[in-house]
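A protein record in our archive is deliberately plain, so that people and models can read it alike. The record that follows is passed on verbatim for readers who wish to inspect the format.
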Amino acid sequence: MPKLIDIVTFHEPPVPEGQSPYVPGAGPAAEIEIDDWNSAWPEQFQLLAERIQEAIGWHALVIEHVGSTSVRGLPAKPIIDIDLVVADPNNERSYIPALERAGFELRVREPWWFGHRVLRHEDPACNLHVFGFDSPETIKHRIFRDWLRANPTERELYANAKREAADLSREAGEHSMQYNARKEAVIRAIYQRAFIAMGLIEA
């Protein structure tokens, strides 16, 4: 299990020299569109979760709906974010070929960051994040999701930050990673309050 210090720490290891997180032909998304919350998103998650489960069976230790589409009332990019936990994400042959046959395409490979992989599915649109069972990132994602679900003021704060970041990034011709960077300060402030409320850190 992850240590407490790793859960409350934001790990940003540098990309090793000569490597790229993106597989050949892939890169950050250029389009940044924020939609009002859509009641179809939970249904799309269920459909995708069933496809994942059918594809890799018991290799799927956890399939979790995370990100903004998992928070009722929160505007979001219309892309379902899913955390998939497997025993060893670096053992790609144990799950990637089966997921590819189910319509998922490997886009990101970051073995230096808790074995993180990202696969993309087009219809419904999905970013499938793969981590190992000992990754603190999946715990962070659930904390953030559940905190926003339970706190309307925080949800509104994040919604405003998302819309402002999207507007600025579109005006500047930026891609999705730059959009993410624009809202990072607000995300970390929300996490800080959630960590304090849950007794994970002291005020």
Remarks:
- The mean pLDDT is 96.
- The helical segments are 4-7, 40-56, 96-101, 136-150, 152-172, 176-182, 184-197.
- Strands lie at 62-66, 80-86, 105-110, 116-121, 126-132.
- The chain has seven helices and five strands.
